[in-house]
Amino acid sequence: MFGADDDRIALAEAYVGLLSTIGIERGLIGPREVPRLWGRHVLGSAVVEELIPEKADVIDVGSGGGLPGIPLAIARPDLWVTLVEPMQRRVDFLTEVIEALGVSNVEVLRARANEVDPKGQADVVVSRAVAPLAKLVGWCLPLARVGGSMLAIKGQGASLEVTESAGLIKRAGGGKAAILTCGESKLSDPDFTVPATVVKIERVR
Predict the structure, then answer these.
(1) CB atoms closer than 10 angstroms to residue 57
(2) φ and ψ at residue 198, rounded to 5 degrees
(3) Residue among 73, 66, 116 nearest 92 (CA)
(4) Which DSSP category does 41 fall into?
(5) Which of 42, 44, 73, 204 has its CA 20 to 30 A from that of 189?
(6) Closest CA relative to residue 177, chosen from 122, 129, 134
(7) How large is the C-alpha radius of gyration of the chain?
(8) Cα 91 versus chain centre, distance
(9) How far is the C-alpha of 79 from the C-alpha of 161, rounded, in Å?
(10) Can you spell out the DSSP letters for 154-197?
(11) Which residues, at least 6 apart from 108, have a Cβ–Cβ distance to it below 8 Å?
(12) Alpha helices in the chain (DSSP H)
């Protein structure tokens, strides 16, 4: 994750500061989420880096306020992260955040997932709090290369979503879905509140 790198930690803290100020002002974050921004939202996004190979090309579908893409870009400067977001006001926010933080390994693309071109080239496609898995499969898997994967950060209903989406996953070219937990080793950290439940699906064809 951010490890002992003071510069990376400072960037993550600055990002939290932006989310808790202009993020709230522009309606991207609810005021009640402020106490949970660091532990649940930023750290809960960054821990997904455990599942991403080195120097991967990553697409964050429906990035919203930049979660999980910006924490991943901060935690892993070896990654190239594309934030895909269709709403202009969110695109404007993401652009301002990237410029303010000076993070050089992330870009913003105003588009819906089905408008991204070229498709089938990303090593990893991530998403968080965007849509049910049944929809995400059709949006995310086509963006991944064969042998790449989609990582959907989910909650307690992940198992049911996987069961209900089994046919769709297969038709979209996905292999068997795995439900993984990221961040368990961080539970002793007082700043870390909840490990991330992630549905991982490899694109097999």
Answers:
(1) 16
(2) -125, 130
(3) 66
(4) I
(5) 73
(6) 134
(7) 16
(8) 15
(9) 29
(10) E-TTHHHHHHHTHHHHHHTTB---EEEEE-GGGTTSTT---PEE
(11) 63, 82, 83, 85, 91, 94, 95, 98
(12) 6-19, 22-25, 43-46, 69-75, 88-101, 133-140, 158-164, 166-171
For the record, the structure tokens of 9 come out as 């930690």
Pull the structure tokens for residue 133: 């898995």
Is the CB of residue 60 less than 8 Å from the CB of residue 69?
yes
In this prediction the pTM is: 0.95
pLDDT tens series, the chain, 205 aa: 676 667 999 999 999 999 999 999 999 999 999 999 998 899 999 999 999 999 999 999 999 999 999 999 999 999 999 999 999 999 999 999 999 999 999 999 999 999 999 999 999 999 998 999 999 999 999 999 999 999 999 988 999 999 999 999 999 999 999 999 998 876 566 666 668 999 999 999 9
Residue 123, token pair as written in the block: 């090593």
